Fold (2Fe-2S) ferredoxin.
Amino acid sequence: MSDPDRAVSRETRADPPLWFEAHVFGCTNRRPDGHRRGSCAARGSEPLRDYMKARAKELGLQGVRVNSAGCLDRCEFGPVIVIYPEGVWYRAEKREDIDEILTVHLRDKGRVRRLMLTERDVPPPKG
Amino acid sequence: MSDPDRAVSRETRADPPLWFEAHVFGCTNRRPDGHRRGSCAARGSEPLRDYMKARAKELGLQGVRVNSAGCLDRCEFGPVIVIYPEGVWYRAEKREDIDEILTVHLRDKGRVRRLMLTERDVPPPKG
């Protein structure tokens, strides 16, 4: 009899290597002013995304891609960024925050604890 | 003397749990008609993204988030999708492709080999 867990595990081992060593997604979703949840763009994420892209290039970070993304659904803690494959989330509100994420996390493979979201940063129930 | 590798390794172990079990990003970047590289939106990615979001909901997939993203820079192989944390890339050109990714990869934790990009799917040099 086949073992589905083992089959999946074999498949997973055969995944191609990561295309980007670090893939960064910054939410640039915008909701109308006055929306209950707010939005990352309303909290200033768009110029920060532009800044992050430009600074990543200036720093010459290899294997790092910075992208915009739609609503990541942790709006209350925004402007939010998530970095994969590690799946670490940050709140970046100003250029100094972006600089620290770029140098400490993306260049030096560390973590920026003061900006990191945790499992306790849970949005309020919907509706 | 401190060992930076060990320090990073300690940090990494302390990362919060994944917020989404599977985080799907579909490129919806659009370039002008006739652009040398084309773009995922010009290849029809936007309605496919909408379809994927709706079907993921209908299938009741827990812990799966489907997002739009800006240019993922593998335009020639688009419309492209990347799924994290595993970092597996797919080319999804029609609804049947999306259905297969949703059921085989996201629901059943398998892989859709016929649609998967590999390390050999390299865009042409820039410029």
Notes: Chain A has a mean pLDDT of 92. The longest strand of chain A covers residues 22-27. The beta strands of chain A are 22-27, 64-69, 80-84, 88-91.
